[in-house]
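Predict both folds.
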Amino acid sequence: MGKSKSILKVVLPLLLGIGLVWYSLSKISVSLLVQYFTDANYSWIILGVILGLLSHASRAYRWLFMAEPLGFKPKFLNSFMAVYSAYLINFTIPRAGEIARASIITNYEDIPFDIGFGTIVAERIADTIMLLLIIAIAFFLEFEFIYDFFSSKFNPSALILGGIVFFAGALGLFLFIRKSSSKFALKVKSFLSGLIEGALSIFKMKKKWAFIGHTIFIWLMYVLMFYVTTFALPELENISIAAILIGFILASFSIAATNGGIGSFPEAVVIAFSLFGMAEDPSRAFGWIMWSTQTLVIIVLGGLSLLYLPIYNRKKTSV
């Protein structure tokens, strides 16, 4: 049963990704997509790639702040190569990258696996908080648009009633989980407890402000990377900041849906941009350009990292 479950975790996202690739390419001709790639302004695409590199370099450097209070002084290059190796491995087995990154750190920096993996989980908590903050900013800036959009799809009275039911249900679920000792409730309480503990642990670091600064920088680079790449296509030159934020949010979630966002990334972009009246063809083309260029960088740097790690650490491995 456990083996079958593990196989499904690998196979289902891959099948979903393949299905979405087929769906996406059925909505735009390959010749037209190639034309968009050919006509794109690669100066903006290269700038987007550079911003992506900066964000990943910052992620690698940020992790050093977590290792230092634990008594370890890992090399930045090992951390950088571990980050890109993890991204590459996530394309083969979803969410296996974090385990691989912790294993690399254990092999080359002598940091116990449980400690290394714990710091990576704490990093993910910080990243989750940042994504939630971006969602909150998008909601605040575009509250009127979001309200009008849902009002046009649903009766306003039904929306208000739905909101009351939702909050009442959420309150009821909170009280149930708080008092219940069921397996589900214990899992939720453990997750929330870890989330709070991880968030608070950031403020206990010696270099907490440096850590927070890098976290903000990482996500700022992510958003800017997404934004500047839209300039590569003239059809998207008038795109609004709201469309960028919603597109970025949906695209971020799409990466978790399939292996590295294959197939799901371009379609998430189309859904978001269509809300703001952007044409489907350039939106879909942008999604493929964005995903392809960033994926190419991950494949190249991730592959080189896996090859160079034992060479860079040859003195250690030869002992």
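Second protein follows, with its predicted structure tokens after the sequence.
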Amino acid sequence: YQDYWGLQEKPFENTPDPRFFYRSPAVTETFAKLLYALRSNQGAILLTGEAGCGKTMLSRSLVAELEPEKTEVALLTAQPTPTELLREILYQVGETHLDTGHTEIVHRLNGRLYDNFSLGKTTLVIIDEGQFLADDALFEEIRLLLNFQLNDAFLITLLLIGQPELGERIRNLPQFDDRLSARGLLRPLERREVGAYIDHRMSVAGRSEAAFSPEAVELISQYSGGIPRRLNHICDLCLVLSYSRRVEWVDEEMAYRTILDEEDSRV
């Protein structure tokens, strides 16, 4: 449908491409706060939000703002044990000989972090899906990573990302909670923001004219609850079905049909 809608690419893919990052007023504030904490190398940072609200997109957009030649990034998801967590971080920062015990891994990781610091590089460790960190020992190991520091600087910056239960879990771990230097919370888009979100993604993909009527936007907003992942899915289907019927734009009737078809397919 790209040619039909005058698009250079698909506008509603659920991938964390920073070009499509929509900065609502609330998201802009969160983004600025977290970016400042990252650039200032302030230790541990927490980002939470419901599933589909754009946490991964925001984190990739934060990384895109950092100087690549001065930043070493390790991106991982929750690991089952503290040793596996450290081993994965060590692997992501370039170490290949990992068949060693916990103590040796800690020593080698500390050495690698110091080497990066000596080269003027920040080591950023992003742990996504943090709500799946099941053991308190994992949180303690992550907290201890913040002990890798000099008198005036951390050797590592941690960005923890997860659903709201991650924040609740951390609040019940006072020693860990006290080490957080910044917190961000992503909420669903408000109804008045959904139209701007849709227009932004369409514009990035190559279309400047509106493709969705205001009534269709309102219906899509209600159905999606303002959650970007759901918005992307239903808007993509609207474009496909509207193209198949050769209509000029997505109106309320077409949005309703699309949503109805989607609900029927769930039965």
